Amino acid sequence: MKINDLTELAVRNLRESVLRNSLTTIGISVGVASLVAMLSLGIGLQQLASRRLVKSGLFDTVVVTSRRDLRNFGREEQRNGPAPGESRILDEAARREIEQLPNVLEAHPDIRFITELRYEDNPHLTMIAALPPSAKSNDAFDGIPGGFFSSDTAPEVIVQKTFAEELLGKTPPAGADETKATDLAAPLLGKELTMRYAQRETTPADGTVSAEDRQNNLAGNAYSVVSRELKLKIVGISDLDPETMRGPTRARVFLPIKLAESLHVMQPTDLREISRSAADQPVYSSLSVRVKNPTRVQPVEDAIKKLGFTTFSILDATRSLRQFFAVLDLFLGIFGSLALAVASIGIVNTLVMAILERRREIGIMKAIGASDGDVKKLFFAEAGAMGILGGFVGVALGWAIGQAINFGTNIYLKRQDVPPEHFWAVPWWLVVGAIGFAFVVSLLSGLYPAGRAARLDPVQALRYE
Amino acid sequence: MTSIPGNSQDKNTIAIHTEELCRHYRMGETFIRAVDGISLQVRCGEFVALLGSSGSGKSSMLNLIAGLDRPTSGTVLVQDRDLARLSREELAKYRLHVVGMVFQSFNLIASMTLAENVELPLRFAEVERGKRENLVREALQRVGLRARMNHRPSELSGGEQQRAALARALINRPQLLLADEPTGNLDSRTGTEIMDLVREFNQKLGMTVVMVTHERALAEQYAQRMIFLADGKLVDDRMVDDRIKDRADFKPAAIPAASGLKGERP
Quick one: pLDDT band at residue B234, thresholds 50, 70, 90? Predict the structure, then answer.
C-alpha cells in the first residue's frame, strides 16, 4: 500500500475510536511534555551557567608559559608540555604565532607588578595588572561606574572597589554591609593617582662581558633600572573582587595593556630573562590567550603545546561542571522518559484493543487482498500517527509549562530583588528530538500489536463476530 | 460491458484443479476432516455450485480455493498456480488479483462508505488515485448503487450491501468469483437480484464462479454444475439439466444424504 493511502486509512481508523485514541495521544503528549519540560530546564540551567562562566572570562582563557621558566621547576606543570630544555622562548614572535592559531581571539602578555600608587600624598602598595581591550565585555568591567579605558594607551586606571575604599579611607569593618561601587565612584572618578615604578632600560654591551658570560649567552643583555613616575586618571570603579577566582588574580588596579607594555616595568621574571634572551624583542613570562568559545579551549591548548609551550586553563573545572550537567540532564531525561514509557504502554493497549475490535475487519482486508505487510504497516501507521500527534502536542505543552514556570520563578526572583533570568531553554533540536523520540517510541509500541494483527488467520478472523 | 482480460480463455481450460485435497484440523480434543480427499476440476467460465449441509466442508473447500487457508495435504491449482506452494505474500497477491469474494454476511467495513469499501482492494493494489475514482464509480454503476456511493453500509438494505460487496469483488477484475452463501441473509426477491448479477458476471464477463450454498433450488436455477459434499467428501458431481431451469413448476430436489458434522478421535 502506498504511504498516503496508509496515512489516510490510519487517520480514518483513529477517528473511528476518537475517545480512546485521543486519550492515548494525550498520554503520549503528557509524556513528551514532561520530557521536554525536564530537559529544557536542564538545558536552560546549563546555558545560564555557561553564559555566566563565559562572561567571567576565565573559561575561555588559556595561560601560556615557557617551560624554561624557572618557576615551573618541580611544580604542577611538570606533567604538562615539553621538557624545559626543549621549550621555546615566549617572545613576540611566539605571541604572534599563537594569535594566528585557529579559534584564538587574541594573545596578550600577562603584565602584573606590585608598585606604589600615591593618592592625595598617601602611598598605597598594590598589585597592578594590564587589561586588554577585550576585557571591556567581561562582566567584571561591563557596566561599571565610570567606564572602560578611552584607549589602549591612555594613562588611565580602573580601580577595584576595595582599593577605592582604601584610597578613601572607608574600609568597612568586617561583617558590615558592603559599600556600593557607585558610592565610591563619585569622589574618585576623574581623580589622579601617581604611580611610582621601576623601569627596566636595556644598556648596550660595552665589551666588558667576560668570555664565560658570552658562552652563557649573556652578551647585550645588561640593563639598568630607573625609577619613574606616571600620573594616571581614575576612569572606573570595578566591583570585581580580587579574592575570588573571577578576573586577574589579586590585582586591584588595572591599566590599559599597551600603556603597561610601553612602561617596561621591571618584573620579577626579568631577573631570569637575562639568561636567555639574546634578541632585542620583548620576552614574556606568560601570555593570556583568549579562545572564541570555551568548547574550543582544548584544541587550542593542544595546538599551543605543539608549538612547544606549557599551557594551563580552568577547563578542568568546567569539565566537572559539564559532567555535572550531563548527569543532571541524564536524570531529568530519565524522569521525563518515564512518563513516555507509561504512555507507550497505553499505545500497546490501545492497539491490542483495536485488533480485538477490528479482528473481522482485518479478516475482510486479508480476504480482499491485503498482505500481512499491509496490515502490519496500517497498525504501524496508526501508532506512528498517534506518536507524531502526541509529540507535537507534547512539545507545545512542555513549552507552555516551561514558560509558566519561568514566568512564576521570575516573579519570585523579582520579589527577592534578584534580576530575572532565563533558565528555560527549548532548543530546536529538543523539539525535533522529542517529536522524533515520541514517533520512535510509538512505532516500537506498535511493533507487537502490528505483528499480531498481521499474523491473524483470515479464516478465523472472518468467523469472529 | 467488456469481459475481464484473461477471462476470455477457452472454456476447456481448467481454472481450478484439486487433487486429493485435504484440510484437517483439531478443535480441542476433536479431529476434524473438513475437506477429506476431494479431487475435482472446474473449467474456465463455469458456474459451479458447492452444495452440502452445515459442516459438509463446502466453506472450507471455498477457503482453500480462495487462498485464505492452506491444505493439510493434496494440491489445489488455480490458473496453474499451486496455492500450497505460494508464500503468504504471494497468496495475498493471488487473492487481490485473481479472486473476488462475496460472503453471506456481506463483510463490508462498517466505518467506510460504499465507495471507500469498493476502493479498498485498489488501494492494496496500489492503483493511482485518479484511476481509482473512475473504477469505483464504474463498479457501483454496474451493481446499480452509483447514487448511494457515499452511504455507509448501515444505511443500506441487505441486498444493497451484497451488491456493494459484489462491486468490491469485481473491482480488481478477477478471473474467479467465489461466493459463500451470497443469498443466505437475503429474502428471496433480493436473493434473486443478487444471483442475477452473479450470473451476469459469469456470462458477460466470463468469470468462473464457485458458489457455496445449501439451497439446491438456487443452484439448479443459476449454476451449470452442482458438486455435493458431505463430511468433507465429494459425494456427487453433476451438470444441471437446462430443462429444469425452464420448468414453470420448478421445485428443488432434496440434497443427497449428508450427515452434518461428524467428529472422529485421532
Answer: very high
